[in-house]
Amino acid sequence: MSDTILETEGMTKEFRGFVAVSDVRLQVKRGTIHGLIGPNGAGKTTCFNLLTKFLPVTRGKISYEGRDITNLKPADIARLGLVRSFQISAVFPHLTVLENVRLALQRARGNSFDFWRPESLLKRYDNRALELLEDVGLTAYARHNAGELPYGRKRALEIATTLALEPTMMLLDEPTAGMTHDDVDRIVALVKRVAAGRTVLLVEHNLKVVEGLCDTITVLARGSVLAQGDYATVSRNPEVQAAYLGTDPGIAGGTAHG
């Protein structure tokens, strides 16, 4: 089994002549937390959309677990164990927290016709759903409507529904965006916990979060890879410093929006 779980070669995306992502080579090591950062318009979310096939690549190759997945569909990618969350919170607001996770469990099992079965039969998913809610600290909210949750708790619920799909690799798109300090600390602890035994690739704007979480960081600028390495290495890179703060030294404590 290779140490590299996800790899891209020459990954490029063009929109009517505009190059959003250019010749990106990305190598994500199995069992690590890998950060994808960069200033506004760097191409981070576009890369996520290419990796999970919400956008087709213009050129290049994407490999997952040694398999070419360049031309697969999003549902095929998810079935292989490569599962993403989104930058904007996405829950079913009028269902309970428990029901949101239960739906994800039903989808993971491929039982689409469960939607038409009596609720008593669907309760077989409840024990596993409650286990997942405990994992993300939402047990006390199980019977609350998801729409009533504070923003940070909604992001935790998204992670629970992502975990319900039993991913080998999770792609998290700005998991702490828009959060208070307390919520950020809670989500950081949660990501560390759920990363045990799996691989995580995350886009994150908060560089203190990146510093505390990530084993390896890839920095994008104008759609291209600017630098890669651990936080200490990339934060000392003059090109990275220029991309974030002009010519000011150091990037620690800053943010990378977009």
Folded structure, characterized:
It is a single chain. Strand 1 (4-15) and strand 2 form a beta hairpin. This protein is globular. The chain is built from 10 helices and 10 strands. It starts with a strand and ends in a 13-residue tail after the last helix. The protein has 258 residues and is α/β, with parallel strands linked by helices. A 6-stranded mixed β-sheet has the order 6-7-8-3-9-10, sandwiched between helices. It folds into 2 domains: 4-91 and 168-245, P-loop containing nucleotide triphosphate hydrolases (Rossmann fold); 92-148, no CATH class.
Output the keywords.
258 residues, alpha/beta, Rossmann fold, six-stranded mixed β-sheet, four-stranded antiparallel β-sheet, 10 helices, 10 strands, 34% helix, 24% strand
